[in-house]
Amino acid sequence: MDDLAIRLLNDPPLPGPANMARDESLMTLVGTGASPPTLRLYQWIEPTVSLGYFQRYTDFLAMPPPVSNLAVVRRPTGGGAILHDLELTYSLALPMGYALLKNGPNRVYEMAHDAIITALRDFDVTPARCGESDGSGAARGPFFCFARRHCYDLLIGPDKIAGSAQRRTRHAVLQHGSIVLGNRFAQQPTAVVMQPFEESLQQLRGSFPQALQASLKIDVAPSKWSERELEVAEGLQEKYAGDEWTRRS
User: Fold this and answer.
1) Which end of the chain has fewer beta carbons closer than 10 Å to its terminal beta carbon, N or C?
2) Residue range 165-179, pLDDT digits in tens
3) Domain presence at residue 1
């Protein structure tokens, strides 16, 4: 692999705290140079609401059922809440100084979403970038991310099919996002275009990394977690499962 290569990790469905702990582990270790730039693809073991970093937990409690009865976790990234269910979730951890960041971290939104557009063409779907933002901020705007609009969001007609959020540290950029394949919860407005779910999911797990590789002209190669990465993630799970992190307002 060359210095620009991105490692691909394909994870099985996991609980919310485990998913967020793994993303933070990657951000931390990629930032120190202990891990390579990494694209992670994953799912959720049960329908789970992830709150943005700045969102109030009381806003989640105020949602009517069934949303308020679902599992909940708080993300390390900002933005609105996401109800993770019939989707493919990705995270991309890149070190500061990485060549693809030379034009700034917003470039990560562009390159990831361009790859999503290409990958979804296999489903005869052509999303378009929203192009403008609605003024939603860290702690303001609709509860659900998919009811908000950011210029990089991907839409089919008026409905969002993919959105992403970032966490930036001095050493790394962590971006993760959701690509919706179906919707069983009307409370979260999304585009719904692909069925059956499992078949579409497996196809997207293959086509998204391929599209990213073709777009960036760099290697995106399957690999495995290191023992150190899993050890750090295990140590972070208590944080993401705990009330102090999740329920703060």
Assistant:
1) C
2) 999 999 999 999 999
3) no
Identify the pLDDT of residue 3.
65
User: Could you give the CA distance from residue 212 to residue 226 in angstroms, rounded to a whole number?
Assistant: 23
Identify whether the C-beta of residue 13 lies closer than 8 Å to the C-beta of residue 45.
Answer: yes
Does residue 50 fall inside a structural domain?
Answer: yes
- Which parts of the chain register pLDDT below 50? 1
Q: Where are the beta strands (DSSP E) in the chain?
A: 6-10, 38-42, 48-51, 71-74, 82-84, 87-95, 128-129, 154-156, 159-168, 172-180, 220-222
Cis status of the peptide bond prior to 66, with omega within 30 of 0: yes
> Tokens standing for 162?
């993919």
Domain total in the chain: 1
Identified catalytic residue from 21, 81, 108, 145: 145
| CB-CB contact of 78 with 53 (8 Å) | yes
3-class DSSP state for residue 41?
A: strand
Q: What is the CATH number of the domain that holds 176?
A: 3.30.930.10
Task: Give the model's pLDDT for residue 1.
Answer: 42
Token look-up 């969002």 returns 160
Q: Which pTM was predicted? A: 0.94
Is residue 145 among the annotated active site residues?
yes
